[in-house]
Amino acid sequence: MSNIVREQFKVQMASFNVRDAFEEIISMYKMSAELKGINLECHISDDVPQELIQDKLRIQQVVSNLINNSLKYSDNDTEVNVRCRFYPRSSKLHIQVLDNGIGIAEKDSELIFKPYTTLPEAQKFTYVGAGLGLYTCKTLCKQLNSSIRLMKASEIDPLIGKTGFYVKIRATFDSVEEMKYQFK
Ligand SMILES: Nc1ncnc2c1ncn2[C@@H]1O[C@H](COP(=O)(O)OP(=O)(O)OP(=O)(O)O)[C@@H](O)[C@H]1O
Ligand SMILES: [Mg+2]
Q1: Can you give the pTM of this predicted structure?
Q2: Is the CB of 54 under 6 A from ligand 1?
Q3: Cα of 128 to ligand 1 centre, how many Å?
């Protein structure tokens, strides 16, 4: 079991460039998406500051696990969308990862975050994982003072996706960035 799963890691807070952080992950998955003919899109809203203070690597690990699942549990020639917005009042970065794959029943919304869980629907895929990805995400989010949940179908624009995960990351402003934001 990895240190993340054992909840033994130190959070490393630092200022980081949000768009670069997402770009790095998207470019990591671009190739596997292309191989399945999946259009992997990432939209970072204009309201997201350039720099935020949080643990960049941990956020990337959460988003990576979600994209990895979305690509794995989707058929060829579909679309996976990553969306990111910032809410300055609560100082939270909201991230959604949406896909059009096999879907997850609402009754399983808690179960999927438990370790070693793979749903029967996922078994038809040639590569079935250990069932630790979402548990890792949940553990990481807890450590980052943040949250992750499965979205309800009614919350998702059907034009964008069918299955969605919603992550809220508490992230503070870099002081220079905060000044820029206030005068925007
Ligand atoms: N985007 C998704 N669409 C459909 N089912 C999903 C999706 N993400 C997760 N699941 C379901 O939730 C289960 C748990 O996901 P999790 O990422 O924890 O494990 P895994 O992908 O099976 O293995 P690992 O991530 O350890 O390689 C999956 O086995 C699958 O049944
Ligand atoms: Mg997984």
Answers
A1: 0.93
A2: no
A3: 8
Residue of 4, 64, 69, 119 to mutate, ligand 1, most atoms within 8 A of C-beta:
69
Q: What Å distances lie between residue 86 and 71, 83, 142, CA to CA?
A: 25, 11, 19
Could you report the average pLDDT of every consecutive run of 10 residues in the chain (184 residues)?
60 94 98 96 96 96 97 94 95 97 96 94 76 96 96 94 97 74 63
Nearest to 70 by CA among 150, 146, 168: 150
Helices (H) and strands (E) in the chain, counts: 4, 8
In the chain the domains, ranked by start, together with CATH numbers, are 14-182 (3.30.565.10)
Say if CB 43 and CB 82 are below 8 A apart: yes
CA distance 106 to 4: 27
